[in-house]
């Protein structure tokens, strides 16, 4: 693999998802009118759903449309990979403005995981784009029922880095609170906000700990995830009185989150073997895995892991620890994988002694 | 109560049930193909009505039908019905003469397919001079002759023309084309995967019709029935095999329980779709007695050819050097993925492991899958559980893996002589630790690996398990690792109830118990009373499959 040109920044890609009627298109329409979105490309499934006519300055060709705020709007024709390659090529050729970021809108029923796979696994794309996060819209009116009925909706929430609650003004505060609680149980590490309060950057900077994330963000992310899981999680020895409320399989479609800490440094070869195994055998149900790993042969420079189902980013090495807490931390969002399975196999194959995370640690 | 009447009562027999709770009985009653009573005359009296057919066994031994956990049926049937056959000891001249005779009765453009020439002819066949003689004998017809290992072929010029093989054809991966040392012209000798260049032409030519496939399978099953086999696992079932088994069952002509193992990748000796593409068709080929419930993974080759994977190196040779251990052809992560995927699909995996390192890797992979997936009702097989590192012996039972004992090589054979050359005498003799596996609680299951064994006669295998000496009279006075001999009763269990459990049919067949299939064999002597070295002489007098006679000795 060639060394990337330092001046050549990877273009951040945000995936915008949400069930049918959850307010995704309204949000996109708002986005497309933002003057500050110049240089952004928005990939949508259909032009028709969003009223573009008054925004158009040029219809260069059917697939790509340049809007008067400098934003490129394109429709996905078949292959997302081809669309992203074409975008990059045309921007490089000067046919389109220089790309500052990309937002991909998924169809309502879509599982965002394959899009994440594509971005991680397709070599040509991995050298040009990076995942800036998954943003999922949930509407306060129909969201609770949708989450109960549709496993796809629960999965969209589970893999989100940021959750945007829409239509909160149409229901009472209790309903919003209950929904917040439900979302926190499904996606403890995701940040949540109301659409009405969401600033543009809120939508786009759903930063996930990855290759370009800043170290302090990484630490903050794990602390937040750990605390949130602690508040909502129920492991094997959970004594929370609201256990049943949180872990009703029918409500959550088997989706659970776990957090582990490992005190001792990790032997990377054994740990990587364990990663191969869990990806091979449980990949489909490993919705998300994020880790900050203290590697035995490089104690001062931790590795950041990010996996979506069976596909993992190449682990990124941080130049220093983001906080005084130098323990390995792992956060899992899974479907129908028992806590004990992860614990037992980590012991057996990675040779580590995982402890249930976490208690809050001063950062 | 006429509806209670049995269709068939077998009485006055010495019925060895393989049911440890009731080892012996004298009478058994059958209704609708299932056993309804087992015991003495009084036990079946209530089931005997006017429509009941009674058979007096006159003191003969009756036991459950034998279950062969590893056989390749299509090749045997095809060879018997459609191919030119000659002994593997035939000379070059005899083989050419046989081809000449066959050509006289074969249509001009039609294939002449035959076998099996002895591996010792390799050098002789690998020349343009030999090729010219074969061409002359065939008179323009394409010829393909298989060797006794089924791994290699000798073909003529017309066959190479049809396959597009010329001096410019490169050797395929894991195979080679015999060539004249001076001109580089192909000699017609096709080693390992090069066989596929010609086999695939035949497979795609429509040479074998569906009707021929069914006839070949029926022929093989009828051979199995004649040895007392009423259930088998076909250990590399390609689509024509699956289709033939289903086709026979649909016609009511399948006379044994059949379980099929679909290859994860196209084997080197059979051709057609494999893996996901084949597995996707499994439900289409399922019927009452045809069960595509396994996937076959080949993890390594064979010790004699130094293609099996061992922990310790083979004997040094000029080509492979001092430290060659062989290698596995599937990585552990890939094997893990296969086992994991198969478990999700409800399929067990039969893993070919000829060397001890392959056995270790297969057990490692299953250990990983067990650790993540937890217990399963599926029983995976280590096929040819023959060379096993001592530390791996307890793992069979710990992981619930069946030891597939096949082919019948647990006594001195020419294979063993080849192993001695490849790995040294001492290591070669540590072959088939059956008694240790048994003591460690492993499920041992028996199979023939026919046509690797020239016929699927389980009595040959059972005698060998007990004596560790060659039942065919070869290698007289020699025994292979005699400490690993096991008793007759255990050997019988291995070839009946154990194999039944191993192929997932332990509740249906394998013992004579109420509710199970009425699959019986009547023997010409009592296995448990004769000297061990007579077991291979046992003749099956009658074979019943679901209460029907499917073989009768004449």
> Largest sheet of chain B at a glance?
8 strands, parallel
- Name the poorly predicted regions of chain A: 1-7, 56-60, 234-250, 359-363
Number of domains of chain B: 3
- Helix-strand pattern of chain A: EHEEEEHEHHEHHEHEHHHHEHEEEEEHE
Under the CATH scheme, the architecture of the largest domain in chain A is 3-Layer(aba) Sandwich
Cα Rg of chain B? 24 Å
Superfamily at the CATH H level of the largest domain in chain B?
A: Metal-dependent hydrolases
Specify the CATH architecture of the largest domain in chain B. Answer: Alpha-Beta Barrel
CATH fold call of the largest domain in chain B = TIM Barrel
Structural class of chain B: alpha/beta
Low-confidence stretches of chain B: none
Shape of chain A: globular
How are the strands ordered across the major sheet of chain B? 8-15-16-17-18-19-20-21
Alpha-carbon distance between the two ends of chain B: 37 Å
CATH class of the largest domain in chain A: Alpha Beta
Q: How many domain modules of chain A?
A: 2
The total strand number of chain A stands at: 16
**Tally of contiguous helical segments of chain A:** 13
| Strand fraction of chain B | 15-25%
Proportion of residues in β-strands of chain A: 25-35%
Instruction: Specify the overall morphology of chain B.
Output: globular
How would you describe what is shown here?
The complex is a heterodimer of chains A (363) and B (554). Chain A is an alpha/beta fold and 363 residues long. Chain A has 2 domains: 194 residues, 3-Layer(aba) Sandwich (Rossmann fold), CATH 3.40.50; 140 residues, CobW-like, C-terminal domain (Hypothetical Protein Yjia, Chain: A,domain 2). Chain A is 34% helix and 26% strand. Chain A has 13 helices and 16 strands. A 9-stranded mixed β-sheet of chain A has the order 3-4-5-2-6-1-7-8-9, with helices on both faces. In chain A, strands 10, 11, 12, 13, 14, 15 and 16 form a 7-stranded antiparallel β-sheet that branches. The N terminus and C terminus of chain A are likely disordered. Helix content of chain B is 32%, strand content 21%. In chain B, the strands form 4 sheets. Chain B has an 8-stranded parallel β-sheet with strand order 8-15-16-17-18-19-20-21. A 6-stranded mixed β-sheet of chain B has the order 3-2-7-22-23-24, with helices on one face. Chain B has 3 domains: 58 residues, Urease, subunit C, domain 1, CATH 2.30.40.10; 93 residues, Diaminopimelate Epimerase, Chain A, domain 1; 336 residues, TIM Barrel. The two termini of chain B are 37 Å apart. Chain B has 554 residues and is of the alpha/beta class. Classes of the chains: A alpha/beta (363), B alpha/beta (554). The interface between A and B is small, with 11 and 10 residues.
């Amino acid at each position: 693999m060639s060394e990337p040109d330092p001046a050549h920044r990877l273009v951040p890609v945000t995936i915008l998802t949400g069930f049918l009627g959850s307010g995704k298109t309204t949000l996109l329409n708002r986005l497309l009118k933002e003057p500050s979105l110049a240089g952004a490309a928005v990939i949508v499934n259909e032009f028709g759903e969003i009223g573009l006519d008054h925004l158009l300055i040029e219809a260069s060709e059917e697939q790509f449309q340049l809007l008067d705020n400098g934003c490129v709007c394109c429709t996905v024709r078949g292959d997302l990979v081809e669309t992203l390659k074409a975008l990059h090529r045309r921007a490089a050729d000067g046919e389109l403005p220089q790309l500052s970021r990309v937002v991909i809108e998924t169809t309502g029923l879509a599982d965002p995981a394959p899009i994440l796979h594509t971005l991680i696994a397709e070599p040509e794309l991995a050298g040009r784009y990076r995942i800036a996060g998954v943003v999922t819209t949930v509407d306060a009116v129909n969201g609770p029922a949708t989450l109960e009925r549709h496993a796809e909706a629960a999965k969209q929430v589970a893999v989100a880095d940021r959750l945007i609650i829409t239509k909160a003004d149409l229901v009472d505060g209790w309903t919003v609170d209950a929904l917040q609680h439900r979302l926190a149980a499904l996606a403890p590490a995701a940040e949540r906000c109301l659409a009405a309060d969401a600033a543009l950057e809120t939508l786009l900077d759903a930063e996930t700990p990855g290759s370009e994330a800043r170290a302090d963000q990484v630490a903050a992310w794990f602390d937040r995830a750990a605390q949130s899981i602690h508040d909502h999680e129920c492991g094997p020895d959970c004594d929370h009185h609201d256990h049943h409320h949180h872990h009703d399989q029918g409500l959550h479609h088997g989706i659970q989150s776990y957090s582990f800490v490992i005190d001792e440094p990790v032997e990377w070869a054994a740990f990587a073997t364990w990663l191969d195994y869990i990806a091979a055998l449980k990949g489909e149900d490993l919705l998300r895995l994020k880790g900050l790993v203290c590697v035995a042969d490089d104690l001062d420079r931790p590795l950041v892991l990010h996996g979506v189902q069976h596909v993992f980013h190449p682990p990124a090495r941080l130049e220093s620890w983001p906080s005084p807490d130098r323990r390995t931390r792992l956060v899992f969002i899974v479907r129908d994988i028992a806590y004990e399975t992860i614990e037992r196999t980590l012991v057996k194959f990675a040779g580590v002694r995982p402890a249930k995370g976490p208690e809050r640690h001063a950062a | 109560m006429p509806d209670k009447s049995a269709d068939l009562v077998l009485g006055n027999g010495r019925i060895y049930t393989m049911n440890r709770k009731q080892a012996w009985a004298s009478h058994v009653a059958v209704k609708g193909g299932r056993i309804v009573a087992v015991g003495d005359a009084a036990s079946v009296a209530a089931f005997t009505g006017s429509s009941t057919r009674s058979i007096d066994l006159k003191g003969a031994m009756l036991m459950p039908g034998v279950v062969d956990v590893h056989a390749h049926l299509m090749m045997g049937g095809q060879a018997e019905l459609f191919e030119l056959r000659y002994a593997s000891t035939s000379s070059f001249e005899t083989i050419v003469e046989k081809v000449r005779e066959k050509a006289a009765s074969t249509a001009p453009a039609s294939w002449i397919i035959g076998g099996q020439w002895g591996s010792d002819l390799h050098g002789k066949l690998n020349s343009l001079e030999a090729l010219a003689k074969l061409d002359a004998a065939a008179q323009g017809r394409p010829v393909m002759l298989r060797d006794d290992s089924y791994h290699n072929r000798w073909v003529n010029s017309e066959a190479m023309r049809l396959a597009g093989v010329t001096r410019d054809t490169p050797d395929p991966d894991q195979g080679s084309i015999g060539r004249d040392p001076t001109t580089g012209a192909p000699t017609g000798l096709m080693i390992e995967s090069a066989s596929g260049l010609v086999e695939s032409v035949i497979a795609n030519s429509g040479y074998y019709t569906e009707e021929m496939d069914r006839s070949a399978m029926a022929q093989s099953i009828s051979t199995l029935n004649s040895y007392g086999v009423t259930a088998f696992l076909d250990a590399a079932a390609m689509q024509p095999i699956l289709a033939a088994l289903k086709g026979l069952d649909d016609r009511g002509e399948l006379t044994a329980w059949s379980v099929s193992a679909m290859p994860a990748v196209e084997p080197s000796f059979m051709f057609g779709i494999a893996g996901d593409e084949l597995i996707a068709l499994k439900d289409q080929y399922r019927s009452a007695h045809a069960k595509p419930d396994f996937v076959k993974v080949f993890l390594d080759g064979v010790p004699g050819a130094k293609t099996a994977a061992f922990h310790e190196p083979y004997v040094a040779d000029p080509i492979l050097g001092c430290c060659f251990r062989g290698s596995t052809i599937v990585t552990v992560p890939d094997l893990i993925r296969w086992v994991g995927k198969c478990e999700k699909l409800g399929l067990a995996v039969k893993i070919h492991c000829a060397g001890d390192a392959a056995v270790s890797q297969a057990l490692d992979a299953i250990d990983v899958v067990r650790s993540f997936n937890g217990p399963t009702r599926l029983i995976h097989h280590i096929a040819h559980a023959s060379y096993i590192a001592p530390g791996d012996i307890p793992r069979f039972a710990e992981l619930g893996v069946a030891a597939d004992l096949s082919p019948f090589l647990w006594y001195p054979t020419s294979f063993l002589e080849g192993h001695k050359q490849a790995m040294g005498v001492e290591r070669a003799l540590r072959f088939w630790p059956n008694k240790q596996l048994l003591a460690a609680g492993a499920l041992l299951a028996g199979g023939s690996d026919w046509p690797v064994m020239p016929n699927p006669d389980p009595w040959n295998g059972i005698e060998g398990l007990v004596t560790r000496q060659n039942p065919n009279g070869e290698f007289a006075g020699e025994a292979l690792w005699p400490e690993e001999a096991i008793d007759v009763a255990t050997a019988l269990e291995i070839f009946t109830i154990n194999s039944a459990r191993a192929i997932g049919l332990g509740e249906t067949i394998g013992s004579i118990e109420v509710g199970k299939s009425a699959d019986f064999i009547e023997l010409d002597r009592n296995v448990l009373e004769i000297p061990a070295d007579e077991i291979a002489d046992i003749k099956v007098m009658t074979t019943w499959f679901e209460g029907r006679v499917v073989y009768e000795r004449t």
